[in-house]
Amino acid sequence: MGVSAEESTDGRAARSGAAGGGRGAGEPAAAGIAHRVPDLGALELLLAVARLGSLGRAARELGITQPAASSRIRSMERQLGVALVDRSPRGSRLTDAGALVTDWARRVVEAAEAFDAGAQALRDRRDSRLRVAASMTIAEYLLPGWLIALRGQRPDTAVSLLAGNSTAVAERLLTGEADLGFVEGLSVPAGLDSAVIAHDRLIVVTAPGHPWARRRAPLEGPELAATPLILREEGSGTRQVLDAALGGLARPLIELSSTTAVKAAAVSGAGPAVLSELALGEELSTHRLVSVPLSGVELRRALRAVWPTGHRPTGPARDLLSLTRGV
Length: 327
Description:
Arc Repressor Mutant, subunit A; alpha/beta; D-Maltodextrin-Binding Protein, domain 2; 13 strands; 327 residues; 20% strand; disordered N terminus; 2 domains; 7-stranded mixed beta sheet; 14 helices; two-stranded antiparallel sheet
């Protein structure tokens, strides 16, 4: 015997309703468990009532008012659909259903306490160390002061510092070898978020005996670009800024991997160099190096804190980041 389209549809609807526990048409699917189970605060209150035999004493122990405790119990009873507590002038007594729910509540609360203890252990492990990666100028001239201040706030946190150029800092963050980084380049490396913490200026310097130390007219960009310089290695923020500002550089006179080494070479008279103003205070004040005026070229740069995209610093890394804002 044939079946009409209308009959077929009705049959499927009936079978679907049976499979879904008789849910009527248009009724929403069952809510998640969080909507069907009382929250931990309510379960703790029920356990306190069972232990103390009084809703008032339970409320005082948990630091809430008795009306608030009564309201919470009534709300839990409506949520579960059963009476949990019999109230009388002599106190509060659990119903049979309340005693059973209390046993379940005890297991849930104990599991939550274990969860909380485990989470705290993870936080303690995170807070016990901080791995910082920083480009050379920041590592040598800014980070020591920040780390001393951080130690005052977190004396139990062990801090390790990995110094390198801006490219190396980005690599260490992206591979999980560092928790927070600091770079000096023109832009934020791919895969990292950042915050500008300070600005810095690059200065052309020479030893006092170099011809540039006695020149009266400012140095022009093309002459600087055409002159072999004592430079940091490729990948350093200082070199990136200088190369971009001049539109290219001559072949390096010497290529070195640290600001301290570049300064030492310049002091020895090996040739001119371009270095961070932060690194030159002592050498300029003692006249071991001379600042050469530069015209028509902007050598200002941003100093940035960086971290993997979407992972805002937490714990000691967050505290260190907050300390840098005073720069």
